[in-house]
Amino acid sequence: AFRALPDPAAHVFETSQGDPLGALLTRATPGDIATAALSAEGPLAGLPIGIKDNLCTRDLPTTAASRILEGYRSPFDATVVERLRAAGALIVAKTNLDEFAMGSTGQHSAFKPTLHPLSPTHSPGGSSSGSAAAVAAGWLPAALGSDTGGSLRQPAATCGLVGFKPTYGRVSRHGLIAFASSLDHIGWLTRSVADAALLFDVLAGPDPRDPSALRDAPLRASAQPTPRIPALRLGLLPALIEDTPIHPAISRAFSALIEGLRSAGATLPDLSPAHLELAGPAYTAISSAEAASNLARYEGLRFGQRASGPSGAPSTVEALATHSRSALLGAEVQRRLLLGHSLLSGQTTLAHAQNARAHIRKNLDEALTHVDALLTPTTPDTAPRRDAPDDPEHHRDRFTLPANLAGLPAISLPLGHDADGLPFGLQLIGRRGHDAHLLAIARALE
Ligand code: GLN
Predict the structure, then answer these.
(1) pTM for the model
(2) Which domain holds residue 401?
(3) Integer Rg of the chain from CA
(4) Which of 175, 176, 216, 335 suits 291 as a labelling partner, its CA being 20 to 30 A distant?
């Protein structure tokens, strides 16, 4: 479980001094943390935790790393933040991200790029870049993030951490600044599966303020027995993997793991759920269309900052909104909104994408009736260089997207390192609603 820190506030402040990684957007003051620590009671009492800055907090600003929300302060805490505080955790910092969680590198923050703790020329992965960098650097034992197409699992893999995304609806999204509502999940980064399970037990459960939240009470993850390796049935997805160029160190470590599990008595059948190759295009279309709809509210009138005009005030309300959005939203966000709006004004592409998504969901659920979980590498490569070109077709997200489209629980565990010492991960995708069971399987493989 979480190792107790003698003085959490001092530890975070001393170790993250000056924030050389660009991981933190705001920090609570040592005085505020010390005051909260005095009355902290519960299963996470005194635990310092970082919160991705697209989750609303009452006491610290919430910006989604966008100029359009600069200085915004939420009048309420996200449900997950409220539950953390009730369990005694200390909210010590808001962490950096790609603007509105659109990206996989942490380089698309409007405020500053995030650096990999092991190599300043590399990205820690993203979009939960600051959460991953801060936990990997040892500043924090855990941090919350969001995962729309892989934003927790992917940086977990490239930083050598555990990254968990629960079943869609298992954790309330109330207070998460939406990117693509049907794909957005809140989850967390930790250094062990046991820690991920402790957070699950505090954070999962029904919430009347999130209409998509599941209504039943979840099983407790930390109470699940760890399964024995010979009892495990884990499905492999050779078609998905053979289709993708994979870093040789990742291929080798993945094959060695499979061999090791087989010789320890586990059953690992090859499965071939159809249409996984459509996950990338389906994700691109659905996430952009939902983003266009969700971000329509930031027009600088009712929501968001208003940009001051270069030459006098714009003449119409529409011109005022266009001006604020053009000036205050980053290029990557604007690219996705343009794509989303054009998809929403057609119909066919989006309908094809929804259809592909329905097939992927059904086929993955079916595959998971034969096995306890599916096993893939988390990413095809280790951390990208910070100056690497963008990946608009989501090649780096290939293995993580299907679980978002299907709403299935998924976790990334450390698997190994390349010759430069950069980490990579192993992904497990579990059965719908079987989050506690997935965490128990992950513990057996850790
Ligand atoms: N990398 C993906 C994207 O850019 C996923 C991001 C996420 O999960 N928030 O959309």
Answers:
(1) 0.96
(2) 1-270+371-446
(3) 21
(4) 216
